[in-house]
Amino acid sequence: MAYFVAAFLIRQFTASWVVWELSGQIRNGDLNTLLMRPMSPMIYHAIQNLAALPIRCALALPIGVVVLVLAGGWRGRARGRWRCWGCRWRWRGC
Asked: How many CB atoms sit inside 10 A of residue 75's CB?
């Protein structure tokens, strides 16, 4: 279960839809308006992706934590060490 939650979180933090948007803009003719602006369309898409990242993090992190807690994958602090996702690895507390 922890693997799927980690994959979900990584996908949310690294997702990019530039190619999808760019191909749609080329087909619809919307790229012309972006090309007429003084900044590059790639900068425009990069800014859009960076602006969406905090929102995706704010939504994905609580969902991931709730799923881990409900599935029993997060055990919290046990005997002065952190246990995460039910694995056998142990980290010393700070």
From this structure: 14
**Residues in the chain with pLDDT values less than 50:** 80, 93-94
CB 77 within 8 Å of CB 93: yes
What is d(CA 85, CA 6) in angstroms, rounded to the nearest whole number?
Answer: 10
Residue 84 β-bridge partners: 74
Helix (H, G, I), strand (E, B) or coil at 40: coil
- Alpha-carbon distance of 86 to 65, in angstroms, equals 13
What pLDDT digit, counting tens, does each position of 27-43 carry? 999 999 989 999 998 89
Give the bridge partners for 76, in sequence order: 83
Let me know how many helices (H) and strands (E) the chain has, helices first.
4, 3
